[in-house]
Amino acid sequence: SPFQCNVFSNEFIFENYEYAPINKRTLFLIKSKLNFNSNIHVDIITPSGNEIKGTIEKISTNSYTIDFIPHEIGEHEIKFYDNEEKKLMIKKFICQVYDT
């Protein structure tokens, strides 16, 4: 029987994500060279294992901004998923949060 299959490009470009100041709004950009699911979701995990709320906003075709406020110093894992069920991770990377 037919089934739906989502295919994602591994060719993502991330901008301004490597470092972020603590307790300040952080905004970075994600771009894909190919089309991908516009229903992507993000988890932002602090060094202590807590989750920070992040928002994703589409700004143009294949370009999105991710926005969050970190309240803890250290490495934050940022994970992108294909849907709310988080069955397929698209990409994971690290953002280093520092004290200003």
For this structure, the CATH topology is Immunoglobulin-like
Structural domains: how many: 1
Q: Which range does the strand content fall in? A: over 45%
Alpha plus pi helix count: 0
Order of helices and strands: EEEEEEEEE
How much is the average pLDDT?
79
Q: Give the name of the CATH superfamily.
A: Immunoglobulins
Q: Residue share in helices? A: under 10%
What is Rg? 14 Å
Unreliable runs, pLDDT <50, ≥5 residues?
1-9
Q: Write the CATH architecture name.
A: Sandwich
Q: Can you tell me the overall shape?
A: globular
Number of strands: 9
The biggest sheet amounts to:
5 strands, mixed
- Structural class category: mainly beta
Q: If strands are numbered along the chain, what order do they take across the biggest sheet?
A: 2-9-8-4-5
Give the end-to-end Cα distance, rounded to a whole number of Å. Answer: 56 Å
Query: What is the CATH top level name?
Result: Mainly Beta
